[in-house]
Amino acid sequence: MLKDQKSTYSGLLFVTFGAILIVYSLSTLETGTVARMGPGLMPILYGSGLLLIGAAVILTANQRTSISPMSWPWRSIFFVSAAIVCFAAGLKPLGFMGATFGMALLSALARRKTSLLHAVLIAAVIAAFCALVFIYALGIPLPLVGF
């Protein structure tokens, strides 16, 4: 049995994502130099950071634990993943407000104790706040409603 399975697998996940980011950046983007950075330099630095974090997590795993898929928070995993997909897929047809509202609503429903009314209120406040910050204060050119 592995030492600490949770830490070991988490560290391997960091290492995997870091390696994928580095390989992708080296194969598709120009890196440039530190004095004259190319678009691939920052992803390589981030990937290296992920590799280092992953290695540190793996090396410090010293307890014995096991992972049971039955104990995972499947409801939260589902709703948070669905929220990300909702925002990405809904931005163009629903606009910024609709996509943000849908994302916040699904994220709020990830918690079992949140009622539908509270989730709707949370989503409305978050959508309005994000519209104020990103569209009006920062001037990001996103459509408020679908087009």
UniProtKB/TrEMBL annotation:
Source organism (scientific name): Aminobacter aminovorans
InterPro entries tied to this protein: DUF1468
Name listed for the protein in its UniProt record: Tricarboxylic transport membrane protein
Record-annotated membrane-spanning stretches: 12-29, 41-60, 72-90, 119-139
Keyword tags: Membrane, Transmembrane, Transmembrane helix
Annotated ranges, domain DUF1468: 10-143
